[in-house]
Specification:
Length: 318
Amino acid sequence: LRIDRDDRIALLGANGNGKSTFAKLIAGRLKPLSGLAKSLDKMTVGYFAQHQLDELNPSATPYDHVATLMPDATEAQKRSKLASFGFGAQKAETRCENLSGGEKARLLLALTAFPAPHMMILDEPTNHLDVDSRQALIQALAEYDGAVIIISHDRHLVEATADRLWIVANNTVRAYEGDIETYRRELLKSRNTPAAAARQSSQTDGRRLNTTDTGSATPAERRKAAAAKRAELAPLRKEVSLAEKQMEKLSDKLHQLDSKLAAPGFFTDDPEQAQALMIERGNVEKRLKQAEESWLAASEVYEAAEADLAHLAEGSNA
């Protein structure tokens, strides 16, 4: 595998397959057990991961963090830099422990990008960000002059920023020739879960409706069908949102457990607790995979309903 300066790569793969581990390897936070990893001698990497939010000094403010990085800058320059990250006068002086999850994520992203690294590795960067912040991140990545590697369940972020897909599965990483939609369908098909079966049933029903309501149906019937389809979208959208929040919560928990388990001497100092945490981690990972399946299935049903609505609208306009 090769990564060039202008690459925009998204890592695909089910939770637990090693996407974050691979990202840490590229970032230099892990050493390869075998094989060879080469990079330019002076190459710098900016690495962002959700579990790093807990590493921010809780008693420090955003101003303190930026001031450390700009020791020779004037007060006005530091304030200006903070303002460009969305931290006005009040938030700049707020202790990190009192910042929201989204504000912490925004600050950490700003600190990661501050030295203008040659490569940015972003592991679930949008989990705590609102819509405006997500859009700002997409714009910033479009203007960024360097390689980007993204791990994210945020389909919009991936489709808006990545031009190459790599899939992490079966203890290896390879280029993926399909798109996000193709990958998601393959994943659902391979799992063959009850949720996937429900999705297939829903899509079949949707196709059945389409064959009857856009041909011989009157405009009034089409409008009625479109209204019914719009009514379906709200609960479907809510289901997708709930699944996303559940994945976010479980991902954060998994990162917290991994951080504890990775502490030097943890297994030898307290083997009983280490064993308990290993069991807990396995349970959390299992629940995360189930949440991911629910999210995939809910997203499929929602997008199928949106497509049906668009199809009905076209028929009405015609």
